[in-house]
Amino acid sequence: MDDGAFRPVPALVEDMADRYPERTAVCYGGNALTYAQLDRLANGIAIAAAGRGVVKGDRVATVLGNSLEQPAALLALMKLGGVFVPMDPGWPGERLRTALGVLSPRLILCAEIGDVPGEFRAASMPVAVGAITPSLRRPNVTLGPADLCYGFFTSGTTGTPKCALNLHGGLANRLRFMTRWFGATGDDVVLQNSKHTFDSSLWQLLWPLITGGRTVLPASGEFLNLQQTIDTIAEHQVTTTDFVSSIFNALVAIVDGDEQAQHKLSSLRYLIVGSEEINARAVHRMRAMLPHVAITNGYGPTETSIGMVFHLVTDADGDAIPIGRPIDNCYVAVLSPDRDPLPRGTVGEIAIGGACVGAGYHGDPAATRKAFIPNKFGEQIPGDKLYLSGDFGYLDETGRLFFSGRMDFQVKIGGVRIELGEVEAAAQRCPGVYQAKALTAERDGMKSLALFAAGKDTLTADAVRDQLRRTLPRTSVPRYCIVLPRLPLSEGGKVDWRELQAMLESRLDADAAGLAAAARPESWPGLTLRALRLALGQPDLDPDADFMDAGGDSLRALIAVRTLTDECGVPDLCVLDLIEHPTAERLAELIATRAPSTAAAEAETAQMDRDAALGPDSAIRAPRSPEETRTVLVTGATGFVGSRLVHDLLAGTDLRVQCLVRATDDAEAAERVARSLAERGLWQPRFASRLEGYAGDLGQPGLGLDATAWEHLARTSDLVLHDGALVNLLFSYAAHRAANVAGTAEVLRLAMTHRPVPVHYVSTLSALQVQAMRGAGRLPEVSSPSPADPPERGYSRSKWVAERYLAQARRRGATVTVLRLGEILPSQQRPHPNTRALTHLLLSAIHQLGAAPDVPIRSDYTPVDYASARVVAAVLDRAAWGLALHVFHPESVDFGGVLTTAGAAVTRTSCADFLARLTVAARETGSTELAALAALLPAPDGHDEAALRRELGALLTDNAALYGKDECRKLERRCRLADEDLRGPMAAYRAYLVTATPPSTACPGGTPAPQLTGRP
Predict the structure, then answer these.
(1) Which of 507, 537, 553 is the last residue of a domain?
(2) Domain of 547: which CATH number?
(3) Is the pLDDT of residue 331 over 90?
């Protein structure tokens, strides 16, 4: 890095303080610091630290959690030239004592003296915002790129943690690159989503402060609460953050299909995913849900200035997402065991050079010499040292780096780098342990630590685990602890790793079998214990066992909570509840107070009755005289059906189409509609002149419109086609209420604001399913649903309530047309899937499992273009206005035979076997589609086959039989629409399902060109 271009990070922050003194710099816990306040507090801490003898190059420990004091303390030490090393007051006492002993710090900054072990308290200095004397006087210490800046502790192979030291030049280079990569505007809001003792937290804290942006610090916690993270992003309108890959995968699972959660993430513009191998499927799914978010795959060890290889994920990456290319002034070489460069396409050890290379390990010259080797590629890579990462990788022909795994005794679990040697050394210090070996266990795509310990006859696994909790960070405590009289040995007298791995696999298989064999309980204590056992993979977990002590972590806590909320219907349960009630007994007591009850059901029924009531003061009027329809307002225009409706209106008529869309402004709203059409192959440039977008939200009062936009739409819209809705088959009525019921009431109010205009409401046949299945059949009238017969699922209930509300408006004279849709699936020409449809989920599962349940599965398959043509026909035909019409294909389809004609091997199996296969596949593959279907269908255990057949048969119904073919032909006869043969669409969809999973991408071959790449 050129010294002439170098400016240290504290100087860049000071520049922002001079330029934007009153702009908010840091937020935490409802409080904030402006740039001026942050700068002056840092100056005050620096003066106090200098008074305690801290000078340039001194190591200083910061035993602080997330707080306003934390950024002020780090900035103060950088200003002084001190080397800050973050530690956690929540670490086990022995771990903290060991780290402080390794560092021997000149000073320890802490929140309270009691946070520091007794023998180090003389070196401690508490810092608190209210107790710091702010100062305008800056230290003005001269800093160069080669000066030490900070250190972070990582695991050590000997059992003693290592402190990796990094330089001012490396940090400044990384942050300066990010300013270019993200196109910083000064309006960036960054959530520090990584724990402050991990180096990735550093860019999240400091980068916004060098660009005039804002840093948001979340409340400190031992476990990540993703729902809280989502809410924090929404509250602060966060634009940028970072996720460990495994946590990112859990985030995707939570927001998939949840439009409210997706809306809360709408402020995001940039995400970095890293710390462990990226999951291509999860990344592409998030990009599909939030297409405006740019997702970067990031890579870089702690020893190389946070991270130094970036890749912007695109559709072209498919399942083989590269790590990427080195950032500015950084370089990568892929080396053989002899430290020679390998041809491209050949796997070798990743070596890193350039401005990012750190200074080594504090007080450990041997480890430094082993990892930081002389640079013999000086003509191609600047600098005198290379860092050997211990990671395998290869470069493709274009110079992009791909990750191929670890090569040493180090693993990454949950994004945390763990030395197995540290775990073993800590175990061997436990009383009674003679020998210990650690290895990784992997099941259902999740990694965890396992420990085998040999010792005295009195040694127990609980004793070993208790000792490790006192000496290791929580992330390094093994989830499985197996005590043996002696460890198995190979013929050469060494520990037999294959035998240990076989023993571990046997244990995992036995646990899985025990969990699968357990009957599904009916009581809340039983259901809660089952959820915790499933999340931990421990069938013998006791009801009073602490979930965290039994090996729970953030991901497993999320799994347990999702099991209870999705499968068991427990409302408002979050990870924090599990943390605060960490045993099955205590959590069950909490759930019992929230679980659905008769009183709760009665309260929901009363709420639905209130929501369906149209107040006497509502301004509902009949149109004075029919007017020409020139402009149609469409809601839900980016959805599966809505985008097709917009296309058909623009392609087949000369109407102007106005679209209400969730977006930051009207331009983005129009762009989102155009993009949704383009993604489905429906966009034509000629549409642009007749398409308008308006930023709004069905779930907000006044549709989220300002007064000007409301007035404009009320005056210019000649007809409202209301297709927008929140659709989540797992969510309760309460979750759907705002968007689907209150939103419909607001749409009607808009239509009545000036000259009353017609409203066409797109509903669902499932709103009438209870009546139809009881033999009512043929329910053509909009007023037909009875308050006594609500559907079971929350989404259907919300549509049922909205129909009742509109029925009253119609009786008062409003022109309301109801169009109830059946199962909407892809068109013949473009089999773009409707991934929310039960039919799609079922067909996809049958294809993936190669099996179908042995029960009649017949239902309508209504291609989206078929349904859209009929809805648009109803819009254009005034004679159809005011009716309730059913839109579904009259010929039903046998789903069990759908795939066989495409050459897929599909066998019939019992309902219990199909559901069991589905449950296992959902868990093992991580498929969100399989998981969603498993949550919708009955559990395989605790039911006999006859009951399962009845339940599946009730879910997978034949609408033509329920409602009668005449109902769906009314519109066709009126509008002279021809019936369509299902064979074409079904053949196209079969082909889609069979080819939906891309083949795996093999490692490419290479040429003799050396694997050296970098960016000057």
Answers:
(1) 507
(2) 1.10.1200.10
(3) yes
Angle at the Cα of 745 from the Cα atoms of 793 and 668, rounded to 5 degrees: 90
Write out the DSSP string of 310-339.
EEE--GGGTT----BEE-BTEEEEEE-TTS
Written as six digits, the tokens of 693 are: 């977008």
Task: Say what the pTM is.
Answer: 0.53
Task: Tell me if residue 813 falls in helix, strand or coil.
Answer: coil
Checking DSSP bridges between strand 360-361 and strand 162-167, what pairing results, if any? antiparallel
What distance in Å separates the CA atoms of residue 148 and residue 168, rounded to the nearest whole number? 6
Contacts of 689 (CB under 8 A, 6+ apart): none
Query: Rounded distance, CA 350 to CA 195, Å?
Result: 26
Is the same domain home to 484 and 534?
A: no
pLDDT at 543: 85
Closest CA relative to residue 644, chosen from 866, 838, 876: 866
Is 325 in contact with 1016 (CB distance < 8 Å)? no
CATH code, 462: 3.30.300.30
C-alpha 887: how far from its chain's center?
35
Residue 668: which H helix or E strand, with range?
A: helix 666-679
Q: Which domain holds residue 591?
A: 518-596
Q: Are residues 801 and 833 in the same domain?
A: no
Q: Which residue has the tokens 């780096």?
A: 401
* Residues 971 and 841 both lie in one domain: yes
Q: How many CB atoms lie within 10 A of CB 199?
A: 26
CB 26 within 8 A of CB 192: no
* Region for 450 from its dihedrals, namely left if φ exceeds 0, alpha if ψ lies in -120 to 50, beta otherwise: beta
- Pair (663, 714) in one structural domain: yes
244 within a domain of the structure (yes/no): no
The reply to whether 691 and 777 lie within a common domain is yes
Q: How does the average pLDDT of the chain come out, rounded?
A: 81
Measured CA to CA, the distance from residue 72 to residue 648 in angstroms comes to 58
582-610: per-residue pLDDT in tens? 888 888 888 777 665 555 667 778 888 88
Q: CATH number of the domain at 779, please.
A: 3.40.50.720
Residue 285 counted as domain residue: no
Tell me: do 947 and 867 sit in the same domain.
yes
**Tokens (6 digits) for 954:** 């009730």
Give Cβ neighbours of residue 617 (< 8 Å, ≥ 6 apart): none
Give strand pairing partners of 443: 446
100, 108 Cβ separation under 8 angstroms: yes
- Confidence category of residue 15, pLDDT binned at 50, 70, 90: very high
Cα dihedral across residues 353, 354, 356, 357: positive or negative: positive
Q: What does the alpha-carbon distance between residue 799 and residue 762 come to, in Å, rounded to a whole number?
A: 9
Band of pLDDT at residue 161, cut at 50, 70 and 90: confident
Q: Does 571 share its domain with 657?
A: no
Rounded mean pLDDT, 905-917: 82
Distance from C-alpha of 254 to C-alpha of 224, rounded to nearest angstrom: 14
Token digits of residue 966: 């005449």
Q: Is the pLDDT of residue 57 over 60?
A: yes
Q: Which residues pair with 402 in a beta bridge?
A: 394
**Which tokens belong to 774?**
């009881």
| Burial of 953 (C-beta count, 10 Å sphere; 0-12/13-18/19+) | middle
Query: What's the pLDDT score for residue 3?
Result: 45
**How far from 543 is each of 482, 587, 698, CA to CA, in Å?**
21, 10, 44
DSSP state of 781: -
What are the E-state strand segments in 907-977?
907-909
In a domain, 354, yes or no: no
Domain count across the chain: 4
- Same structural domain, 863 and 994: yes
Token match 């499932």: residue? 766
Tens-digit pLDDT profile for residues 457-504? 788 888 888 888 877 877 788 888 888 887 786 555 556 777 888 888
Per-residue pLDDT, 781: 41
Integer Cα distance of 807 and 818 in angstroms: 9
Question: Alpha-carbon distance 637 to 651, whole Å?
Answer: 15
Q: Is residue 42 part of a domain?
A: no
